[in-house]
Amino acid sequence: MKKIILSGFIALTLLFSATSCDSDDDNDHETIISATDLPQPATAFVTTYFPDATYKLITRQNIPDADGSIYDVLLSNNFDIDFDAKGNWIDIDGNHQAIPVALIPVKINTYVTTNYPDQVVTSIDNEKTFIEIELSNNLELVFDLEGNFLRIDK
Question: What is the pLDDT along the chain (154 residues), one digit of tens a residue?
Fold first, then answer.
């Protein structure tokens, strides 16, 4: 009887192991692409705001992230920009470098310069229902889509 139970347990363990190895890798699959494969608005964005940078790595996901991003662009200046399928930017990570002021909504930039005059915005996430920024002191601030301050994110 013990051998039957042990054999059944081993069979179930192998079954679960085999099915867990068959993960949704296809859903997380990223493909390395060239700049010519980016949507035109994304290429124009990079050329406009980062004219001296070159492309280090560009990947396209088969399925968009929850925020809608599908393209991940890493530039030679270490800026990391995510774009949606149409080429609209979703988030920009400056990797501790200042985001170009022209990309920060005026109301948010005014709030930051008034309340945190010694800080710069180093990351901005344009989510579906809010905008989140990170300052050079690693403080994260959340704003509504109109640029009104909501809270400090912890």
Answer: 545 554 444 544 444 444 444 444 444 589 999 999 999 999 999 999 999 999 999 999 999 888 889 999 999 999 999 999 999 999 999 999 999 999 999 999 999 999 999 999 999 999 989 999 999 999 999 999 999 999 999 7
Structure tokens at 21: 């190895």
Write the DSSP string, 43-108: HHHHHHH-TT--EEEEEEESS--TT---EEEEETTS-EEEE-TTS-EEEEE-SSSPPPGGGS-HHH
Tokens 């530039």 found at: 75
Task: Write out the two tokens for 2.
Answer: 């013990």
Q: pTM value? A: 0.79
β-sheet with 140-143: strand ranges across: 30-32, 55-61, 71-75, 80-83, 89-93, 121-126, 131-135, 140-143, 149-153
Dihedral over Cα of 66, 72, 148, 141: its sign:
positive
